Fold each of these.
Amino acid sequence: AVENFVNGRGERLPLTSQEALSVIKGLVSVSDPDEKDKIGEGLSAKLNVPGLIGALHELLGSYDELTEIAGMSHPRAVRRWESGIRSPQSSAVGEQFRLTLKLCAIIYDGQVSHIKDWFNGANPALRNKSPLELLTQRDLRGVSKFPEQLLSAAKDFQRAPVA
């Protein structure tokens, strides 16, 4: 699954967004949502903010959702973080993106379009709110108030029989 990339001094190097996407796309063969959650956790920990944004942009298809998740009003800031020109002022942004990547890892079923649909669609497990809506409701630290509910809803989605 996720390998440790180490430089000559023994320091762990962050994965690139493309390496992360390769791992996530490999999860299509993993049927256990709890295993996908563990792999997503390890993967998200190995990505820096630019890598997280790059991978999430590919999975979600636009910067709009990332802008909302970060609590920003314009995607320009998110693009600057991705390029490394600037960094988010709060570590909560990275936590939000890490949670989002875990959710993507759990629900990925071979169709990237299903990820965006899941994030934007009303979800009965979330009282008919969209996962994106719950991601944008933050606690005092600036991170989602509902990480466990979101993870549970993602696992339920993964376990649901295909129609």
Amino acid sequence: GNLGSHSILDVVCAGDASSQYSGVAGIPTGGGENGSYYTEFVYENRFFTLRGGTLAKRTYKTDKKDDPKTFEMECVSNPKEIVHVEQFLDKVNAVAKLDDGTFYRLLVASTEAVNNAIMHGNKSDPRKKVLVRVVFKKHDSLTVTVQDQGAGFDPAGVPNPIEDKNLFKTSGRGVFLMKELMDEVQYSFGKEGSKVELTINLKRL
């Protein structure tokens, strides 16, 4: 796509190209790991992140004031990608404005879901992707959907980590935490992969 007269490639290659869109939205910038950089901006209701020389696109829909707001993040199946979950959710919370306790619940559950998708769903295969999608409905709900390209599993068959016989096992903790921290957890499995939906009921806050 085009950003004004600049293509996405132009923005990736030009270190200060995004500054031309400073009138569209604020542009927080900062350093990343190993001296890499990231620059973030909004253009035509889309949220863009320049990080380490690559462009990651998050949708940020604001067609109508009361419409649900949608955010997306895609990552490769590398455990190092998990650190970006918090950065992504910080952008969500800039809009959702959750209290600290609720945001902590969201962060822990979402991190566990992404970790499971990378490690168990996609078996850390860098050719496979994990998609994280957040739908925020003000005063109603916030739902995080994490989709991988794995074959799926039986949630009922995951051992309960707080039972005496499972206390020293590492498996099952992520599924347990998601269930305990979220108001609703739903799984679905299909040809395109596995999905877990984590929902916080904002009406209860």
Amino acid sequence: MIHTYPDSGDRVLTWICQMKQAVLIVDLENRIEMANPEALELLGYAGEALAGRAIDSVVGKDRAKTTGGEGQEARWIARNGRLVPVRMTVSDLFDAGGKLQARVYTGMSGNELGHTDLVTHAPDAITILDVDQHRWIEVNENTARLYGYPREKLLQMGPWDVSPEYQPDGRPSRDAAREKLEDALAGGTPVFEWVHRNAEGELFPCEVRLARIPHATRRLVRGSIVDIRERKKLEEKLVEERALLRALIDSIPDYVFVKDTGGVYLLCNKTTEEFFNASEAEIVGRTDFDFVDRETAEAFRAQDQKVLAAGCSLRNEEWLHYADGRRVRVETVKTPFYGPEGRLLGLVGVARDITERRRAEAALRES
């Protein structure tokens, strides 16, 4: 059975780019004119490596002569010579006047073999840019919703028309966009954050992924755009919460620290920094053995192991000896902490200076 797709032209590019299956567009001389990213990945090619190749070098001479069919079992030939099992569909592509323009080879492999839908619309905003014409030649409905422009208007525009003059880093949007496009045209797959501007003039952040669409005569780049406003809000909230937690920890006069199961410091507050006479950056990633004498470090480690083995909070008293000769008696509470799946990750320690309390108690006993 031969499927026909009379809606040809630029919209065909969107069709093949939104398919999860590997797609090869073959001209009337049986040479590959275009391949979508899925085909390139399946066969181990990059960039233009497939453009201009004879179709029989990929599907085999017998299969290249196929005049139609849906769901045929076949083996495509990867770049390294490996045979890739696929379910192949061969379709004819006609123009609006009914003239045969090309043949479409679609290959489904792996988990895709059970699917019957050939066209799956991506949930992201999808665009296809003709780099030399400086405009989009195809956009999906998600793109129109994202920017607030009708599709017909967007087809007269390019990415710089929905961008502010400058990006947050101070670079002109046109210069930065040109750099990313050149990266994609060279075979790269740049992923980056970008500030866009919608029809209402509102600026909003997006994550953009670019990939070159191999074509015999045109420089085309596919864009996948995701609105990340909600993600940014969550990230900002997380930064605020971390700042609040840091302010809280550093305002506590007690010694506060976190260690992993191996005794390596993960976090500490300013009181702990003062004791070790080192910054948190110098303490994190190291153990007590890097800062105190071996006997003291072994005592700290022994108490840590008791807590980890017990699986509950334990309290003990110990002396802290500062480098300047001061001695501080502390009451330390150490508590194990666990990951979301119940795996033991380490312990949290809080030590309070009780030197004066113990001196007062001793004086009271002696009076």
Amino acid sequence: MSLCYKAYYVLTYILHYCAPLLLYVRSLKNKEDKARKNEKLGLYHKTYLQQKTKTLHVHGASIGEVLSALPVIHNFLAENKNIRVIVTSGTVTSAQILEKKLPKEAAHLFFPLDTPQAVKRFLEHVKPDVSIMIDSEIWPNFLRIAQQSGIRIYALNMRLSTRTQARWRRAPLFFREILDNYTAFFVHDRSTSAFIKEFSTKPIQLIPNIKWTQTPEAVSEDELKIFKQNIGDRKVILLLSTHDGEEKGLIDAFEKHDLKDVFYIIVPRHPNRAPEIISDLKNYKIKQRSKRHYPDNANEVYLADTVGEVALWASLADICIMGKSFASHRGGHNPIEPALYGAV
């Protein structure tokens, strides 16, 4: 084990004892599920599916990753009847969506913090035979302990950005040891493939981006009709997966151009931010999805503060603007989902 790996192991072992307080504070801010926050410590009390012969574990960090994994899970279950599937993610919103969308043969848990204690508890509880890590989820303790436990680990739809590659180049031995824990890599861009080949001899296969394999969800025609009638001829601008301050900044920017007949639909990344958004936009007339409101001729903004309804909002949109795409944030969110419904 390299010095970096040892240092990471020891540091995370110590930090584990600070984690309960951190999770408690985050739960007060609605950033963790109050009832399930201890799952991230590897403490599970959830009743599971009937025990099957084998267990497949699928992990995606947040909404985009877990949604892209759904076709994989459905196809896998269709061909393997005697296997249970445990899906993990890290965010409250992704958990809420998965509770609605997972097939009955699968269950959701929160992924453990990458401390040795939490990881060992998780693996002892779930006992996976195979673990599939979606996109760029690299957790050194989980990978090492899982591999030592005889679990086969596959990276699916892996992509490492130029920034991420530059970071790992600073610790090449550590990165090489991490990659040695995988069984194989399925990547969707040539840059990632070439980068991994520099550090690993494990099999690498180039595949299409699995996010394009998502099947558009059926949208309620009745709901769509009501919204279209109430919105009328106004052009719909969808602000999707927005973060702190983006809603006001974007709408104010549009309003400076004195646009006529425009209707805004806001879908915040974290619906619990609704009071903050309403306060920021106090000069606008707002209706809320969580209060079962429908738009009318008087209101200018519709706050879609629920989860799992992107299909409806994207179907209404003339223009879609993805959140986390501007100067105050790094990176952005994937536009594939709204594009599936024809949003521009």
